[in-house]
Amino acid sequence: MEKFLWAFLIGGTICVIGQLLLDGFKLTPAHTTVTLVVTGAVMGGLGLYDPLIKFAGAGATVPISSFGNSLVKGALKEFDSTGPIGVLTGIFSITSAGISAAIIFAFMGALIFRPKG
């Protein structure tokens, strides 16, 4: 039960930060998304995001900030094994499943629902 509470609180806090960026700083949704992804990437590069994931579970892995962490993690992992070219290839290997799923589900949604406009 405690793990669910922390996941809810941490995930909710990340979402509140995103909403504050939208409302308080009048950022566009694209700017807010990029800010959260870059924040997750910086935290991942500093080694701060993985402990957050261990602590909050899905509360830290579901928000978009986790995507930035995954990009950095993949780039660093491939850099260690293949050198500088790994920075480019690593980001694709670790995130490809999530990106592929998003594309497939978006395509299926486009087939099922009729867009307005």
TrEMBL record:
The chain crosses the membrane at residues 6-25, 32-49, 85-113. Coiled coil: none annotated. InterPro entries: Spore_V_AE, SpoVA. Keywords: Membrane, Transmembrane, Transmembrane helix. It comes from the Bacteria. This is Stage V sporulation protein AE. It comes from Desulfosporosinus fructosivorans.
